[in-house]
Design goal:
Layout: E1 4-7, E2 10-13, E3 25-29, E4 36-40, H1 47-56, E5 60-66, H2 67-73, E6 83-86, H3 95-107, E7 114-120, H4 122-134, E8 140-145, H5 148-154, E9 159-164, E10 167-174, E11 179-182, H6 192-209, H7 211-225, H8 229-249, H9 264-273, H10 280-297, H11 303-316, H12 319-326, H13 330-337, E12 343-344, E13 347-355, E14 358-365, H14 368-378
Helix pairs in contact: 3-4, 5-6, 5-8, 6-7, 6-8, 6-10, 6-11, 7-8, 9-10, 9-13, 10-11, 10-14
The structure holds nicotinamide-adenine-dinucleotide and zinc ion.
Length: 385
């Protein structure tokens, strides 16, 4: 049976997840900038062989790659293609980081014939996509996502951004890649924190997708955390199946897509105020919980949903991360939330779940009343420590 979910007045169907046997599969994302294929590779051939095949098929590739990924999965390099290694961190995801990529592109005399291939997680994706978007008003690029977060979420949708003046993603562009090659083999080397981070974004998308999606997430969570890559791969595909119809319907983020920002107003504030000590997807888990609790306190959401999200969050957030978030003064979080792109006049348009499979945008006033609501909702984090 097709699962459906609701964002405001718009109804969506969870796209049927592509078959994930021993064969590669995939789907095509319709985009105003040109449709692009997302190829979900099977385990064999391994990442190095498939990246080499991708590069072989391009006339003039230039590679921007996470240096950790280069060392772990591409020890023989990327063939003759010039390569710019990146140390992935929120500090790299900055104008300076973009300038380093732009220097590389200019040094290699990138032009119309060039295709840039970004290999890495969300940071490499964001900084490379941003640089490709501004260089000569747009260079073609392809993306090879190597973290779970990137394979399950960021690889589709065409958003790119860099952090600026202590605000996450303040500068950005829509600049979709020409194709995406997602290979599960990359995930074998992920640090546990990055696995939990990816699962945090998947939890958010499954809560949006509805009861069936969340149940599948809950069923797979323990195995995924134990490193079962088949389960991880199927949860990533499920997550894309929720995101895909929404980004196609609202690529420019002016309507329903804003709901995919669930957990991010508080999450981005947690990241910024803890000096990025809490990984992005883990901060999103904390944010999803706090924003759901805020909805519960307004009488919009049943307590049972918050309890279920809390049970998953206990497995995704370490005590140290929960404590780091809990020690931030609510006023500091509140001030960081004031820079959110969803602020409209004197209110923050906050996406909150009103049920599993139903999200509404509510107005959170940017005054003492709103701060009071945030402060009360933050109390739910105590149960994670
Ligand atoms: N553009 C979008 O649509 C979008 C969506 C969601 C998140 N994001 C952004 O993505 C970023 C988070 O992405 P992320 O979690 O992928 O972070 P990341 O790119 O910083 O990667 C996390 C860590 O994993 C390492 N790594 C990458 N691939 C690896 C591999 N295969 N094996 C071992 N280590 C590996 C990196 O070196 C880094 O230390 C945030 O900045 C977030 O804002 C962007
Ligand atoms: Zn995110």
């Amino acid at each position: 049976m097709t699962e459906t979910f609701r964002i405001g007045g718009d109804r969506f169907s969870v796209a049927p997840p592509p078959p994930l046997g021993g064969e590669a599969s995939g789907f095509v994302v319709r985009s105003g900038a040109g449709d692009y294929e997302v190829r979900l590779a099977a385990g064999q051939p391994g990442p190095a062989v498939q990246v080499a095949a991708l590069l072989d098929g391009l006339a003039a590739p230039l590679v921007v790659a996470d240096e950790v990924v280069l060392a772990a999965h591409l020890p023989d390099g990327v063939g003759p293609a010039p390569c710019h290694p990146v140390v992935a961190s929120e500090a790299t995801k900055s104008l300076d980081g973009a300038v380093a990529v732009l220097d590389f592109l200019a040094g290699e005399r990138a032009g119309r014939a060039t295709t840039v291939v970004a290999i890495g997680g969300g940071v490499v994706q964001d900084v490379t996509g941003f640089a490709c978007g501004v260089y000569k008003r747009g260079l073609s690029w392809c993306y090879v996502p190597t973290t779970l977060l990137a394979q399950a979420d960021s690889c589709i949708g065409g958003k790119t951004a860099v952090n600026f003046r202590r605000t996450k993603n303040l500068l950005g562009l829509f600049c979709a890649p020409g194709q995406v090659l997602s290979h599960p083999g990359f995930l074998s080397s992920l640090a546990p924190a990055d696995l939990r981070s990816g699962l945090g974004e998947i939890l958010k998308l499954c809560a949006i997708g509805g009861e069936g999606c969340l149940a599948r997430f809950e069923d797979g969570l323990a195995a995924a955390l134990a490193g079962d890559l088949d389960v991880v791969r199927s949860l990533a595909a499920l997550s894309l199946a929720v995101k895909w119809p929404v980004i196609e319907a609202d690529e420019r983020d002016v309507g329903a897509r804003r709901a995919l920002n669930l957990g991010h107003s508080v999450g981005h504030a947690v990241e910024a105020t803890t000096g990025y000590e809490v990984p992005h997807g883990v901060a999103v888990t904390l944010g999803t919980l706090v924003e759901s609790e805020l909805a519960r306190r307004r009488g919009l959401l049943e307590a049972g949903v918050v309890d279920r999200l809390t049970r998953s969050a206990r497995l995704l957030v370490t005590g140290t991360e929960a404590a780091a978030a809990a020690t931030v003064a609510p006023e500091a979080l509140w001030s960081a939330m004031g820079g959110d792109k969803k602020v409209e006049g004197s209110v923050l348009k906050l996406p909150v779940p009103v049920a599993l499979g139903a999200v509404e945008l509510v107005d959170l006033p940017l005054d003492a009343r709103g701060l009071g609501e945030l402060e009360s909702a933050l109390g739910c984090l105590a149960s994670l420590r």
